[in-house]
Amino acid sequence: MARSLKARTETNGPPRKTGEGCFFVRPAEQVSRWITDHRPLATSAICWYEFLTGPVEEEAIALVTALLAGRILPFTEANSREAARLYNATGRGRAMRIDAMVAAAAIATQAELATENTDDFAPFVPLGLRLVHG
What we know:
By secondary structure, this protein is α/β, with parallel strands linked by helices. The chain has a single domain (5-119), classed as Rossmann fold (3-Layer(aba) Sandwich). It has seven helices and five strands, in the order H-E-H-E-H-H-E-H-H-E-H-E. Strands 1-2-3 form a three-stranded parallel beta sheet. The longest helix is centred in the middle third of the chain and has 13 residues, at 77-89. The radius of gyration is 14 Å and the shape is globular.
């Protein structure tokens, strides 16, 4: 059962503002504003993986690929070290592993992370994450 981009946008990823533009994991309303303002979007390879695992339609993949224009940032060794720091500092909850990776990538690019799931990322705010609610 593939969901449309609209459904995927409502449930899937945060945006972050970087030197590149915006960073997103689960698109939120803020992403629409950034698009309207013609701000370039970027995402981490971790977020891109989450998006592609769907369910998502091919048309949605094509649209987001065009919006990103190649700005899918690699998850580096430095990102791994930062994610481990975040994970350890927030109690090592199993559900926090991927969120720590997303937060680390956002922090590394000095991006704002926009998401509908602010509760999931709130523990990382005191550790350097700049969080924007949808």
